[in-house]
Amino acid sequence: MARLPVHTVETAPEAAKPRVEAALKANGFIPNLIGVLANAPEALAFYQEVGKLNAANSLTPGEVEVVQIIAAKTNECGFCVAGHTKIATLKKLLSEKGVQASRNLNPAEFDDAKLAALAAFTQAVMAKKGAVSDAELQAFLDAGYNKQQSVEVVMGVALATLCNYTNNLAQTDINPELRDYA
């Protein structure tokens, strides 16, 4: 059971209700993360707006999911690991091997060298709080990414950190719709 309220459309603060309703409409259910973020309407707005920006960046949708799964796994957020595994799997954004490599935090397991470089770079960004070495940045660039995308990885990690830390704080239960991907 979560340590913070998990709001529904009916119980959410007025400022959060439209965003909770939008999540229900988009997903067919209210992810418990949304219900928890509704405790702070500005945090929910931040999550949804930065999420849109993150989805519109120059990384492919599969690359975005690599960053999100690695961040969630690194931050020990089972809820977000499950959610992003479901997205990557059902939308076929990553191969099964790519999903497992991300979940295992093991770039060597990827069947795609470019995704392996992204995974390694994401892990370095997280481990070093952004202060990656010149060699780590260069390996990312040499894999076919660009400097804009290095900042987009940081943006993805920042978004994931809000979600992961909020779930860890709240001890958010994984929705039944996500449990098969936990």
TrEMBL record:
Alphabetical list of InterPro entries matching this protein: AhpD-like, AhpD_core, CMD-like
Domain Carboxymuconolactone decarboxylase-like: 41-122
One function term, GO molecular function aspect: peroxiredoxin activity
Ranges in coiled-coil conformation: none
Pfam families, per database record: CMD
Classification via NCBIfam families: ahpD_dom
Protein name: Carboxymuconolactone decarboxylase-like domain-containing protein
Organism, scientific name: Eikenella corrodens CC92I
Lineage, broadest ranks: Bacteria, Pseudomonadati, Pseudomonadota, Betaproteobacteria, Neisseriales
